[in-house]
Amino acid sequence: MRSVSHLFISGRVQGVGFRYFAARLASKYNICGFVRNLLNGDVEVYAEGEKDDLDRFRLQVKTGPSCALVTRVGENDVPMISASFNSFDILEDE
């Protein structure tokens, strides 16, 4: 069963390779969606995938790469935007 996760990650998460880290994890777990930097310094992640894969992805993305310092993770309940995502993209900054 496909599930969705919409995360807002705060802390030292920009300028540390966080988006590329998330994209590599997404590839590993067959996750589709996007990641982008927000103007307030947070990183936004929208991810769709099979529930077990998505749970593993979320657990690791909530920690971030080794040089990041995640201080808070907010998660919104959102409907699936589109089950037709076929990739995980790094979007331009907000």
UniProtKB/TrEMBL annotation:
Database matches in PROSITE patterns: ACYLPHOSPHATASE_1 (PS00150), ACYLPHOSPHATASE_2 (PS00151), ACYLPHOSPHATASE_3 (PS51160)
SUPFAM superfamilies, sorted: Acylphosphatase/BLUF domain-like
Group of enzyme by EC: hydrolase
Occurrences of domain Acylphosphatase-like (ranges): 4-92
Pfam family, one: Acylphosphatase
Catalysis: reaction(s): an acyl phosphate + H2O = a carboxylate + phosphate + H(+)
Keywords: Hydrolase
This enzyme's EC code(s): 3.6.1.7
Active-site residue numbers: 19, 37
Sample GO molecular function, one term: acylphosphatase activity
Stated family: Belongs to the acylphosphatase family.
Name by which UniProt lists this protein: Acylphosphatase
